[in-house]
Amino acid sequence: MIRKYFLLLLLFSALFLHKNEAAGQSGKRTITGSVTNEGTPLEGVLVLIKGSSYFSGTQHDGVYYIPVADSATVLVFSLEGYQSKEVMLSDKDEYNIELKKKSPSLSEDNRITAATPKKTLYPHH
């Protein structure tokens, strides 16, 4: 008899926990899509929920998946050498993004500098 009550209690506890777990999942959804440049998939694009520390990245085919709370409003897409893009979220679950390459500029990595020779190859007589 005690065993029967114990099994019933265990069954109801499992159902109660499952119901609470499912309720905890409400308010979340998964956003998906692809990131390209001129039709070419981009791998390694950082996909960040703005204002949080949650992020994901694109796979080799440019596809990403990121779980977001319903309260999330903006996704940020960034990759070195490309212009970052912010996208306002709506009720859609799929966002296909086109990133544009940054235009070349005189940055730290590719600046033009003038140099003066320190040693001549042909010394004067």
UniProtKB/TrEMBL annotation:
Region annotated Disordered sits at: 104-125
Coiled coil (UniProt feature): none
Q: Which InterPro entries would you find in this protein's record? A: CarboxyPept-like_regulatory
Q: Report the protein name in the record.
A: Iron complex outermembrane recepter protein
| Domain of life, per lineage | Bacteria
Q: Name one Pfam family in it.
A: CarbopepD_reg_2
Q: Does the keyword Signal apply?
A: yes
Q: Which UniProt keywords apply?
A: Signal
Q: Which residues form the signal peptide?
A: 1-22
Q: Which organism is it from?
A: Filimonas lacunae
